[in-house]
Design goal:
Blueprint (H helix, E strand, L loop, with lengths): L1 H28 L2 E3 L2 E3 L1 H4 L9 H9 L4 E3 L5 E9 L4 E9 L5 E5 L7 E7 L4 E9 L2 E8 L5 E12 L6 E5 L12 E4 L2 E5 L4 E9 L4 E8 L5 E9 L4 E9 L5 E5 L4 E6 L6 E5 H8 L10 E3 L1 H7 L1
Length: 307
């Protein structure tokens, strides 16, 4: 009697597992994944009338996970996931929201661990910024009309010039290998600056409206940090007039504002931002030995203590 009972229980358990497996397979075959949410592919695009409704349709597209609306609100692209476990993407789907024409861009051969940012550069170009390893990221630019890769760069601290025509970035030597060399600043894939043998480029790369580059360097033995200023010479395809000044303030990501101020977001305390006057910094480069003091300091940690 007991034997028959266990046989029946075992048979029912196997039947339940089989039914559950078929259900999961059926769901998987009818769905594509976007980000952390699962979306039925056929239902991902809004059901639009022939007349394009700018406000209503835009809201529908914005609700789709990992969607990016174009500057003129007439196109959108989505990231399509390679698998849900690693949350890696290998395809970009571009949709014209007026004509409903669809195009896909495959980047399955790109090696990365995390997508850091994607955006529209203009109406024809989009960019993908992804992390590869501790000293290397990848920055790719695609043409949304042709689907081709316009350019791809490996490095860190990618920045555009003010006209969004050229990309500058830092290419560091791998610290986990026996290779010996200098860190470099690259201009559309071509080196335009090389650090001294005893210095390494920390990053913080920024460019002013006048085309002046600012970035941080540090001695290899880490006993001194520098703020570096350099001007790119288009004829020589190299930077000249390189100046360095010792920097005791926090080091991080530099932003140059239109009102002649330079902000540094600390790489250690990400929410700490210090703003300096460019004129004060220029005085330091000219040999004025006085310390450069920030105009303002925004530190949420200290602000919370004072509340």
């Amino acid at each position: 009697m007991k034997k028959s009972f266990f046989i029946i229980i075992g048979f029912m358990l196997l039947l339940s597992i089989f039914a559950l497996t078929q259900y999961v397979l059926a769901i998987s075959s009818s769905q594509d994944k976007y980000g952390e949410q699962t979306v039925v592919f056929d239902e991902a695009y809004p059901a639009l009338d022939n007349a394009y409704n700018d406000s209503e349709d835009l809201l529908k597209y914005q609700e789709i996970p990992n969607s990016y609306i174009s500057p003129f609100n007439d196109k959108v692209f989505f990231l399509k996931e390679r698998n849900s476990i690693d949350q890696l993407f290998d395809e970009i789907i571009i949709v014209d929201m007026v004509s409903k024409a669809e195009k896909s861009i495959d980047f399955i051969d790109v090696v990365y661990t995390t997508i850091l940012d994607m955006k529209w550069i203009d109406e024809e170009r989009i960019s993908l910024y992804a992390h590869s390893n501790p000293i290397l990221d990848i920055y790719m630019i695609f043409n949304v009309n042709t689907g081709e890769v316009i350019s791809s760069y490996y490095g860190t601290d990618f920045i555009w010039d003010t006209n969004m025509e050229h990309v500058r970035y830092v290419l560091r030597q791998p610290y986990f290998s026996d290779l010996v060399g200098n860190d470099r600043i690259m201009y559309d894939g071509v080196p335009i600056y090389s650090s001294d043998n005893d210095n390494t480029i920390l990053g913080g790369l920024a460019i002013s409206e006048e085309g002046i580059l600012f970035f941080f360097e540090q001695s290899i033995n880490q006993d001194c940090a520098f703020l570096v200023k350099a001007l790119y010479n288009e004829e020589e395809l190299w930077v000249n007039d390189v100046q360095k000044v010792a920097w005791d303030e926090p080091i991080g990501y530099i932003e140059i504002s239109i009102n002649s101020e330079m902000s540094v977001r600390s790489s250690i305390k990400e929410d700490e931002v210090r703003t300096y006057s460019i004129s004060d910094i220029e005085k330091a480069f000219d040999g004025d030995t006085r310390d450069v003091f920030p105009l303002t300091v925004r530190d949420p940690f200290l602000e919370n203590i004072g509340e």
